[in-house]
């Protein structure tokens, strides 16, 4: 199979169910941002990370394919590859587990501190954009609302994990100062 099909040369692209839409449709922006978040996460994973963090992030990379698949399928009756409540609960459990190692947050912090944390904060901002674009899609088309919740929790998890990576590496969070 060739990588190029020429079917998108007119500015349209295919969705699941053999539907075609414009490449400027909000659906394309939403799952494109999810794909970008996954690529940013791939960059994070090139760093030396503790095994528990690495394993969670690798699982999330696979889950982000489910999110993208879900957003690319406008047929909500098709239950294959949908974001589930269990996926959201797993993020929440990881947030709680990792946050239990951290001191309470008493200040706003700036993204950074260490290289892996900085990369994870970047991935977090891409996830926030994916969430915003998914909300915009939901305002136009009906979608699985779990996609929005998943992306919201994912950015929270990335924030917590960034703090945890700094703590485990002995790097102080950077406090926002006015």
Automatic annotation (TrEMBL):
It comes from Nitrosopumilus maritimus (strain SCM1). InterPro entries: CblAdoTrfase-like (IPR016030), CblAdoTrfase-like_sf (IPR036451), PduO-typ (IPR029499). Keywords: ATP-binding, Cytoplasm, Nucleotide-binding, Transferase. PANTHER family: CORRINOID ADENOSYLTRANSFERASE (PTHR12213), CORRINOID ADENOSYLTRANSFERASE MMAB (PTHR12213:SF0). This is ATP--cobalamin adenosyltransferase. It is found in: Cytoplasm. Pfam families: Cob_adeno_trans. The lineage of its organism: Archaea, Nitrososphaerota, Nitrososphaeria, Nitrosopumilales, Nitrosopumilaceae. GO terms for molecular function: ATP binding; corrinoid adenosyltransferase activity. One of its GO terms (cellular component) is cytoplasm.
């Amino acid at each position: 199979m060739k990588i190029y099909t020429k079917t998108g040369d007119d500015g349209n692209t295919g969705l699941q169910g053999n539907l075609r839409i414009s490449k400027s449709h909000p659906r394309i922006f939403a799952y494109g941002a999810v794909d970008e978040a996954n690529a940013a996460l791939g960059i994070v994973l090139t760093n030396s990370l503790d095994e528990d963090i690495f394993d969670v992030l690798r699982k999330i990379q696979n889950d982000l394919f489910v999110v993208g698949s879900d957003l690319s399928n406008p047929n909500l009756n098709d239950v294959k590859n949908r974001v589930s409540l269990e996926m959201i609960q797993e993020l929440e459990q990881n947030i709680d587990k990792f946050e239990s190692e951290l001191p309470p947050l008493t200040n706003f912090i700036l993204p950074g501190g260490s290289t892996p944390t900085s990369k994870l904060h970047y991935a977090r901002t891409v996830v926030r954009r994916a969430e915003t674009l998914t909300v915009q899609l939901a305002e136009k088309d009906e979608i699985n609302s779990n996609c929005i919740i998943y992306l919201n929790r994912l950015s929270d998890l990335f924030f917590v994990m960034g703090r945890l990576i700094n703590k485990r590496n002995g790097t102080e969070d950077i406090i926002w100062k006015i």
